[in-house]
Specification:
The protein has about 400 residues and is an alpha/beta fold. The protein has a single domain (about 20-390), classed as TIM Barrel, CATH 3.20.20.30. The chain is about 45% helix and about 15% strand. The protein contains 13 helices and 13 strands. Helix 1 runs parallel beside helix 12 (about 350-375) and helix 3 (about 100-110) packs across helix 5.
């Protein structure tokens, strides 16, 4: 996609405000420098959460995997270690009964005075799902997620006991459930399969994407909104996009750092693949798309770099934004212009990157949005920092 950084008019699709999300790490181990600990370094968690809040982040994702810390317990700790951060709890519906999840989330929401968010993961790998006894196929997993969402919302809003008999869950006389702090908790869903779009568009408060080229994200957002409209929704899901920025003082330094990083990331991934037994092409559509973009070219638009996705076999959110803080901030605004109001940025040098993003990237994005609010016009950020748009690329 060719991006014109110059027009002064703010696009009609642009989000007026943005919330920045990160991901909470539990110890100093990184993809650049893996350490042999799988445990929780409490002092590190305290420092990390404080750094997120001091840096101006609005929310943090508590991820879930069969070999990770429990996301609910970690979210509760993060909620108490912070004053403002929204803990986003990643939940796989196969790991908890929906009425229990509703109670856990409502409890977290009460403890954090209304900051809780839940991100539902239907499951993209049969191997990973089987590790905790889930043998449903992909279609059934998404069907279960849809039913899970309905039960969560009923558990938070029903004023009398209710029963349920569905394809995946059955119970009698539950409730009234323990209530959230001030109303239903936002529900996020992600994925690139047809089922993910149908459920997310029709039912989710938030739809989550990994970083993709602008033209492709635009079409995906349109698809989500079209499904929401067809479902009769008066609102539309908020759009969440995720990147792994690599920044430095100049463009050349940033790209040099990126080249060094990707070699180290690839070694870490290869060692983890051998240890954990993940083999072959990924099953989930999001990872397949990431690899397809990487095969086609390395650099898209202003700053999107796909070689990190190729180095990790499309594992998780792995596309980078590379450049100076100004270029990366301008690239983030490009996605805000398409309607993204939630932007997740997490780095490879995890704690130090949080510091740098808070000092050098977040303020630039917020300054641009403040200028737009005050004037109704774009500022100069995008026009002044074209990044890869001004060159033949760094392939």
């Amino acid at each position: 996609m060719t991006v014109d950084p110059a027009p002064a008019d703010v696009p009609a699709t642009a989000a007026a405000e943005v919330e920045f999300i990160s991901l909470t790490h539990t110890n100093p181990s990184t993809e650049l420098n893996p350490l042999p600990s799988r445990g929780i370094d409490l002092a590190f968690v305290r420092r990390y959460v404080r750094t997120l809040e001091d840096g101006g982040f609005d929310a943090t994702l508590l991820p879930y995997a069969s070999n990770s810390a429990d996301s609910f317990v970690l979210a509760s700790a993060v909620g108490q270690l912070s004053e403002r951060l929204k803990p986003i709890v990643a939940v796989r519906p196969n790991t908890v009964f929906p009425t229990v999840a509703a109670q856990q989330l409502a409890t977290l929401d009460q403890l954090t005075t209304g900051r809780a968010v839940v991100h539902l993961i239907s499951g993209g790998s049969d191997t990973e799902q089987a590790r905790q006894g889930d043998y449903l196929d992909k279609t059934e997993r998404y069907s279960r997620t849809s039913e899970f969402i309905d039960i969560l919302r009923r558990s938070w809003t029903e004023t009398a006991p209710f029963s349920h008999a569905g394809a995946h869950y059955r119970f009698d006389g539950f409730g009234p459930g323990f209530p959230p702090y001030a109303g239903p908790i936002p529900i996020s869903i992600g994925g690139q399969s047809d089922a993910a779009f149908e459920i997310g568009g029709a039912q989710a408060d938030i739809f989550s994407f990994w970083g993709e080229p602008l033209a492709d994200i635009r079409s995906q957002i349109d698809r989500v909104h079209g499904i929401a409209a067809a479902a009769g929704r008066a609102d539309r899901p908020r759009i969440w996009v995720t990147f792994r920025p690599i920044i430095d003082r100049t463009e050349d330094l940033a790209w040099s750092k990126a080249q060094e990083y990707v070699e180290r990331i690839a070694r870490t991934f290869q060692e983890a693949t051998h240890r954990l037994g993940f083999k072959g092409e990924p099953q989930n559509v999001g990872s397949q798309r990431a690899l397809d973009f990487a095969r086609r070219q390395e650099v898209y638009d202003r700053a999107l770099w796909t070689r990190t996705a190729a180095a990790t076999n499309g594992n998780g959110a792995s596309t980078a934004l590379v450049g100076t803080p100004e270029t990366v901030a301008a690239a983030i605004v490009d996605y805000i212009d398409l309607g993204a109001s939630l932007v997740s940025i997490r780095g490879y040098d995890t704690l130090n990157d949080v510091v740098d993003y808070g000092r050098y990237v977040l303020p630039l994005v917020r300054q641009e949005l403040a200028h737009r609010k005050a004037t109704g016009r774009r500022g100069s950020l995008q026009a002044d920092h074209p990044g890869a748009l001004a060159t033949a690329g760094h392939q």
